[in-house]
Amino acid sequence: MSRELSDILIVLIGITVPTIAILIATMLPKWVARRDWHRERARRLRADNAGLRDEIGAVKDRVAGIERIVTDDGHRLTEEIDALRGARN
To answer: Between 87 and 8, whose confidence is greater?
Structure first.
């Protein structure tokens, strides 16, 4: 390798390595912050999802009870309503 080419490579490496180091030093905190933000958001969404699943389960139970009452024979409807009223009191 010639002396000129060797000098050019040294200069290029001398410029490239610090430039890459500066870019990494400035960008890494942003990448870490963004990653942490996404992780926290995912954690909150999972918690919200679990709460919504519980709420849907409760609503399904209530709808099943209402369907049972509505599809019952007419003479049992009054008994069911009275039983529900008694349970609330």
So the answer is: 8
